[in-house]
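R.M. (postdoc): so does anyone remember the format we settled on? I'll just put the structure tokens first.
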């Protein structure tokens, strides 16, 4: 297990987790990497560590460059355990080491690792720099990207930004750079990552991107997935982040539903036909067979989300409740939509879904509607028309 030099004196020393399939509920069918970076200068500096079970992989990679005892500084950009899980092992090996983090980071370290109260910790903010020899490292607090403690580290002399979760992707490839990643769908995975991890913090992301404008960067080193070093790749990921952070959307609608006897599904297909007849791109997800994190990736840049459910016990199906809870937590901005579904006697799902969509901040320019039992020609025609109406609203925006 060898380190990979990414720029003179800067090495990737992280770990590859091929087997991870869920990252706190977000499905990761392609695994992930925990990226840590070693900077060799007069003072040896490690930026972030890896999840605890991978500590030996980290230490072996460090050892391929330098004895871990020689690490002088550990910069903890973010205390979530996928990055700090091996910090105790590193501190133990190094002995005389200073840990650098934000004030919030120190608080979080103590809450995770009781032994850290004995560590030599220096807290830093945007005004601080750390001289490690030829390099002065600076710090860019980036609260909520992804936790309140998060910061980026920047080496001006190398023009390298260590952006932690920012610009990350869950991909367990042995290839280290975006330009080597071939058909690994780096930008699609970055979209899924943003949608499921960073979407609620889009205002902070937009502010941070603004602050970084004009900062010369040749290499972006996130803490998950591949590294961006080609100008075109850096421009593309930054431009995508700007668009996602601004809540920009395409002429696209996402239809999400659950169905008991396919009545709601028939309505979904008719709504889809209506939207498509107007040239709006669509994605349809039956919640029984679809993954929430994949759906959110599509929701991120869609103008509309339409939610359908059969009525069960006077409300929506349980899967719809789960979807709406997750959606609300991710706080998508500027979306429109409506609810639909079939019912037998009392109904109730459509009303409950509309209420929840409104509570999530959706505008509902098209009236939600329900059909008793099996939709006939009229109900399907109404469904088609609702699709057309919503398409008109999307095109007006
Ligand atoms: Fe990759 Fe928020 O940790």
């Amino acid at each position: 297990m060898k380190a990979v030099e990414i720029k003179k004196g800067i090495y990737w020393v992280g770990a590859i987790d091929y087997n991870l399939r869920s990252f706190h509920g977000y499905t990761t069918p392609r695994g992930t990497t925990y990226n840590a970076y070693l900077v060799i200068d007069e003072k040896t500096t490690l930026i972030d560590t890896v999840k605890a079970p991978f500590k030996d992989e980290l230490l072996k990679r460090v050892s391929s460059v330098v004895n871990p005892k020689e690490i002088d500084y550990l910069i903890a950009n973010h205390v979530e355990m996928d990055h700090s899980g091996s910090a105790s092992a590193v501190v133990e090996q190094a002995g005389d080491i200073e840990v650098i983090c934000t004030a919030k980071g120190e608080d979080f370290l103590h809450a995770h690792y009781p032994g850290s109260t004995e560590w030599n910790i220096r807290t830093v903010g945007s005004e601080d720099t750390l001289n490690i020899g030829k390099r002065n490292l600076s710090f860019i607090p980036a609260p909520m990207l992804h936790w309140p403690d998060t910061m980026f580290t920047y080496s001006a002399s190398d023009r390298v930004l260590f952006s932690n979760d920012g610009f990350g992707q869950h991909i367990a490839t042995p290839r280290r750079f975006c330009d080597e990643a071939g058909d690994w769908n780096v930008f699609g995975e970055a979209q899924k990552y943003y949608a499921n991890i960073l979407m609620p913090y889009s205002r902070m992301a937009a502010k941070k991107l603004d602050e970084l404008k004009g900062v010369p960067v040749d290499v972006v080193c996130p803490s998950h997935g591949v590294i961006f070093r080609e100008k075109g790749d850096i421009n593309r990921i930054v431009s995508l982040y700007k668009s996602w952070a601004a809540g920009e959307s395409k002429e696209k609608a996402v239809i999400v539903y659950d169905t008991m006897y396919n009545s709601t599904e028939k309505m979904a297909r008719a709504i889809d036909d209506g939207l498509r007849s107007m040239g709006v791109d669509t994605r349809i997800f039956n919640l029984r067979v679809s993954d929430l994190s994949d759906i959110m990736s599509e929701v991120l840049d869609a103008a509309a989300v339409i939610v359908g459910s059969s009525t069960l016990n006077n409300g929506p199906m349980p899967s719809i409740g789960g979807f709406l809870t997750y959606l609300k937590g991710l706080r998508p901005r500027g979306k429109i939509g409506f609810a639909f579904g079939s019912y037998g006697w009392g109904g109730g799902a459509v009303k409950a879904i509309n209420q929840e969509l409104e509570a999530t901040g959706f505008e509902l320019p098209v009236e939600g509607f329900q059909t008793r039992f099996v939709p006939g020609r009229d109900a399907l025609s109404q469904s088609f028309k609702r699709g057309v109406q919503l398409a008109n609203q999307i095109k007006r925006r």
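R.M.: ...and that's the designed sequence above, right after the tokens. Also worth knowing: The mean pLDDT is 97. The pocket of MU-OXO-diiron is lined by residues 78, 80, 82-83, 146-147, 165, 223-224 (CB under 6 Å).
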